[in-house]
Amino acid sequence: MDMITQVIGLIILSVGLCFLFLYVSKSEKYDENEKYVEDKMNQIITKITDSFDIKLLSVKFCLDIVIACMLLLFYQNTFLDSLNTMVLVNALFVITLYDLKYHIIPNRALITLLGIKVIVVLLTIFTAKEISALFILIDMLIAGLAFLLIGVVCRFMNKNAIGMGDVKLLSVIGIVLGVNDSFHMVITGMVCIFFVSVIGLFLKKLTRDSELPLAPFIFAGLIISAISMGV
């Protein structure tokens, strides 16, 4: 498969993945005593035909093209490595929408992300004989457990610092990207939070008690890392 065909295929898969994550997130059931109930959650899907959401998806499609070209043509990553990144891009895109509007991290989006990661890992092991399955597994577990531990410690020290949904999100990101890429991406996201917080405080749009959703900044960290480093 030549590089142009791979780029086109990756973009097409990315579009499909976006709607897959939207669908699984929409279909998730929530308890009636949750702050945000299912009826309100479904608004994110019904609004997808609105002009704003069409524009948003158009921007997302352009972003897919840029990332696919950077990963495959500029950094010359393998197709499966690039697919791994694009899966996370689409998962975080949908999770960001939910986190911004409803302050919820959809569990089914995380489960779907892990399921696709398993498929990608198996394909990588079978197609790249030089890559050790044990090395991949250890790398995934170390990153996932490290972020889980960091999140639990932060929540133990201050419950308002991070939600359990964010802890699960960070842990899953560690599993999907491994140690090096996940830490670089999360650190980039933290830098984004720092600058937004400083600017918000300076402009008096935020206070010290303001709570910012984590997913949008992690998503920004992933986009920056993918374009600047080929994560």
**Structural class category:** mainly alpha
Secondary structure tally: strands: 0
Sheet-strand content, in percent, reads under 5%
**What letter string, H or E per element, gives the SSE order?**
HHHHHHHHHH
The average pLDDT score comes to: 87
Largest sheet, in brief, is:
none
Radius of gyration in whole Å, from Cα? 18 Å
State the shape. Answer: globular
Unreliable residue stretches: 31-41
Helix content: over 70%
Count the DSSP helices: 10
Our measurement of the CA-to-CA distance between the termini, rounded to an integer number of angstroms, reads 22 Å
Polypeptide structure, described:
This protein has 231 residues and is mainly α. 77% of the residues lie in helices and 0% in strands. The chain contains ten helices and no strands. It has helices at residues 3-26, 38-41, 43-46, 51-74, 79-102, 107-127, 133-157, 164-177, 179-202, 215-229. The relative contact order is 0.12. Residues 31-41 have low confidence and may be disordered.
Q: What secondary-structure arrangement, pairings included, does this model have?
A:
Layout (H helix, E strand, L loop, with lengths): L2 H24 L11 H4 L1 H4 L4 H24 L4 H24 L4 H21 L5 H25 L6 H14 L1 H24 L12 H15 L2
Helix pairs in contact: 1-4, 1-5, 1-6, 4-5, 5-6, 5-10, 6-8, 7-8, 7-9, 8-9, 9-10
List keywords for this structure.
mainly alpha, 231 residues, single chain, 10 helices, 77% helix
Short summary of the structure?
With 231 residues, the protein is mainly α. It has helices at residues 3-26, 38-41, 43-46, 51-74, 79-102, 107-127, 133-157, 164-177, 179-202, 215-229.
